[in-house]
Design goal:
Helix content is 68%, strand content 0%. The chain has 34 helices and no strands.
């Protein structure tokens, strides 16, 4: 009977939103704190028994069918509070079952009636359910919802409508996540070494910022489009060398997480999807073979050329967004490794770099990523031509270096050929040269070619921009040294540690944090007394006052090293010295 009565009430609601007349709200709803205040005031001003009877008469179940049941429950010892709570629960559950199938007009009316109770725990599920299932909430109501201090507790479906209506609110939520992402970067994006980073899909799943950004978007193309516009704007306006590529990474990761989740409503509409999918596959496989090259070339050929009017109107962002996909650090490092591998193959074939089409195309893609900011800002897309200084200057010099290394492969102790000023300058002349040089240096460390490593790191030490533009080299170098500590007892240690890392750790907090990462990775794997001497050296640089990591890690490192049994044994010599023996005899 209760269910059919409530259903009848819903059927009798006239079409269209209905305003609640002022007379119906002459006193606040008798629920929660406001209802409690009303009842307390009535009890104070009137005779309590009479006031209670009036409240029950006006607000209770006055149906003749209900009265016998309530009186019977009284006889059974059930309180009226329990009875009404049970009825409320039953009615709420019945209504909640009907809400998903109600037409929009009835949802409008029900929302107007139930929204005042959204803060009441016993009733909040009703307006929440209406907001979740309402496809088109009216703009005035969206403004009212956006003004709620706790509007973020509303269902995601309602929040997305609010954000589509109020872009400032959306921008606030997005920028909170973007600030957290930039201020707490995924340091694995600086990793150049292959095999030391998770697969792209697992990396996305573990990235909190990417997951939350995708959750904000849901299946709303409008919110996704606004999000990509934020990425483009921030990539152009952020001039810090180490920060702006993060927005290229976010552009690729957001799209590919939507792909991973099967959200075809979004990714199928994104003109970058095919390119993003191909690049993601190349990163996963760490390979850009001839088939992938042909595939990527076909995508670029199919891109429509944007007219000047389209660019001015901002209706052709796809070209700039494709450049952002290659600005992703994971993509750039993969391409740098592939360029170096192609160059090694050219040397093996005894060919000339400028004659290798695959090498030239890979270089174009890497150049596109490194210059994504300019491409997005200009709004006119074209694959950049390979710089002649790179193709006919840097590549032949590096190829000759690779060949010299092959000839010395039997004995790394042999001295390397000296570089003239032009050749030496070419290795770090441009951002592209720096990326490929970093891959080369890491390849020489793997084979313990300390002569070539010493030559290259000596050049790097002379760079004024080492801190901002070569952090990925330092990060990857430390990662490689932590993988296997067998280099500790070789000539590579003074080359990499004494002459390079110790020196650059003085430059900035981020670089000093990397030397701390190395110390932490070597504890228990190298002689503790030797490592302790290095820790003391870097601790004296005074970064504990400027770095949270340094302030917390140095005491921990010292404790771990000085309590090591090997350290205690090496520092305590039970054999008395000659002077102490003489003194004892005397």
């Amino acid at each position: 009977s209760t269910q059919s009565t409530w259903g009848q009430i819903l059927v009798e609601v006239p079409p269209g939103p209905r305003k609640v007349s002022p007379g119906r709200m002459s006193h606040p709803p008798l629920v929660a704190a406001e209802g409690g205040k009303y009842i307390l005031q009535a009890l104070v001003e009137g005779e309590p028994r009479k006031v209670i009877q009036e409240i029950q008469l006006k607000n209770g179940l006055n149906s003749e069918k209900c009265r016998p049941a309530l009186e019977f429950l009284d006889l059974l010892g059930a309180t009226r509070s329990w009875a009404y709570s049970s009825i409320l629960t039953q009615l709420s559950n019945t209504l909640l079952d009907q809400i998903p199938s109600l037409p929009p007009q009835m949802l409008d009316d029900l929302l107007a009636r139930s929204l005042p109770f959204i803060a009441v725990p016993e009733l909040s599920a009703i307006p929440m359910s209406v907001l979740k299932h309402h496809p088109t909430i009216s703009p005035p109501l969206l403004d009212e919802l956006a003004a709620l201090p706790n509007y973020l507790t509303l269902p995601d479906e309602a929040k997305r409508q609010i954000w589509l209506h109020n872009t400032d609110k959306y921008r606030e939520e997005v920028f909170v996540l973007l600030n957290a992402y930039v201020n707490n970067p995924d340091f694995s994006s600086f990793e150049i070494n292959d095999g030391l980073v998770e697969t792209p899909r697992r990396r996305r799943e573990h990235n909190t910022a990417v997951r939350k950004l995708v959750s904000l978007v849901g299946s709303s193309w409008g919110l996704y489009k606004s999000l990509t516009e934020f990425y483009r704007t921030l990539l152009v306006k952020t001039t810090i060398p180490g920060v702006w590529p993060a927005f290229g990474t976010l552009r690729a990761e957001t799209l590919m997480m939507l792909h991973d989740q099967g959200n075809s409503a979004i990714y199928s509409e994104d003109c970058c999807h095919r390119v993003a999918w191909a690049v993601d596959a190349c990163i996963r496989e760490n390979s850009v073979d001839s088939r992938r090259i042909r595939e990527l070339q076909s995508y670029f050929k199919e891109l429509p050329e944007a007219s000047a009017a389209d660019v001015a109107a901002g209706v052709a962002p796809c070209t700039g967004d494709i450049a952002m996909l290659f600005a992703d650090r994971f993509a750039m490092h993969m391409l740098a490794r592939q360029v170096f591998a192609a160059l090694v193959a050219v040397v093996d074939r005894q060919d000339i770099p400028k004659n290798d089409d695959a090498l030239k195309f890979l270089t174009q893609l890497l150049t596109l990523g490194l210059h994504a900011r300019e491409v997005v800002q200009a709004g006119v897309f074209a694959l950049p031509a390979v710089d002649n200084e790179v193709l006919q200057g840097f590549y032949p010099i590096l190829a000759q270096k690779i060949l010299d290394d092959l000839l010395r492969s039997d004995d790394w102790a042999q001295p390397v050929e000296a570089l003239d000023a032009t050749a030496a300058a070419s290795f770090f002349a441009t951002p592209l040269c720096r990326k490929i040089t970093a891959v080369y240096i890491l390849s020489r460390i793997r084979v313990r070619d300390y002569s070539s490593v010493d030559q290259m790191l000596s050049l790097a030490l002379g760079l004024e921009t080492l801190d901002s533009e070569d952090f990925d080299l330092v990060y990857s170098l430390v990662s490689l040294l932590c993988v296997s500590p067998d280099w500790w007892g070789t000539p590579l240690r003074p080359v990499v540690l004494d002459r390079f890392l110790i020196n650059i750790s003085r430059i900035s907090v981020p670089l000093h944090d990397q030397i701390l990462r190395l110390w932490s990775g070597l504890v228990g794997r190298v002689p503790p007394n030797e490592l302790f001497a290095y820790v003391q050296t870097t601790q004296l640089q005074g970064f504990e006052q400027h770095s949270i990591n340094a302030a917390s890690m140095y005491p921990s490192l010292v404790e771990r090293l000085t309590t090591d049994a090997a350290f205690i044994t090496s520092t305590f010599d039970p054999t008395p010295s000659s002077s102490s023996s003489s003194s004892s005899s005397t």
